[in-house]
Amino acid sequence: MLGQLLASSVTAGAVYALVALGFVLIHKGTGVVHFGYGDQVTFGAYLVLIIQFLTGLPFWPAVIVALFASAFLGWAIYNGLMRPLRNAPLLVQIIATLALGTVMREFLRAYMGPNAWSFPFLLTSSSFDLGGILLVPANLAIVGVSLALLCLLFFLFERTFRGKSIIAACDNRTGASLVGVSVSGVFSSIWMLASVIATVAGILVAPVLTLSPEMGLIGIKGFVAAILGGFNSLTGAVVGGILLGVIETLVGAYISSALKDMISYGILILVVLVRPQGLLGILSVKKV
């Protein structure tokens, strides 16, 4: 039974990890906590359906178009909202992300309706037995994509010139500008990449969580996973997501299912009090 529980918990954890990756990427790059990110995950999944309705495209071509559309959405969010606020107080930027999430959620509620929509699995949802543990290919896809995205981001930041430019701009905007790095272009790229990750996450989790405007609440779990792993560590986002999924599943199975969702908030409070930098994060002190 424990093996089956762990297999199920890793799937839930991978969902949280995907959302946490977007939180960490935006915060690591721009210093902003995007509290509307959960709604952007939902919006990304709905994009596939909207594109199918408007164009009549089959599912997979609609997914590809949605990924490009989400990249444009990330560009528009940065250049239309966050860039004009780049010198505003941090609280103002956070409120802007909350407003953005609300606008996305209410637009979906008005345009697509409040009821849930069916969404196809990328792989079959039929389970198969592996050593007495039932595994579902659709759930394995979520785990695989989370790890693949982490590897892709690591390669981007460690092995490419664009990735090194992003790191340079994040560490020292003035210094990066002096050596010819377009800081504005870097930040725009970060928002575009995070937006694509949100759509990927939405496409993967929509069949599991039921696609509705309220699916954006998954952002809370992703935020807790990012805090747990370390809000400035991409690896920590994945570790935090998996660990949160395991803890939730074990608490729900062995203590009480009523505590399954509550445990996330308990973990958030505990980490903030005991280790605010998270498991793999680096504590940074800023002079204000």
From TrEMBL:
The protein, known as: Branched-chain amino acid ABC transporter permease
Q: Where in the cell is it found?
A: Cell membrane
Sequence similarity: Belongs to the binding-protein-dependent transport system permease family. LivHM subfamily.
Predominant cellular place of this UniProt entry's protein: membrane
- GO-annotated biological processes: amino acid transport
Q: Which GO terms describe its molecular function?
A: transmembrane transporter activity
Which organism is this entry from? Answer: Sneathiella litorea
Record keywords: Amino-acid transport, Cell membrane, Membrane, Transmembrane, Transmembrane helix, Transport
Is Lipid biosynthesis one of the keywords UniProt gives this record?
no
Segments crossing the lipid bilayer: 6-26, 33-53, 59-78, 90-112, 132-157, 178-209, 215-231, 238-256, 262-285
> Per its UniProt entry, which superkingdom is the organism in?
Bacteria
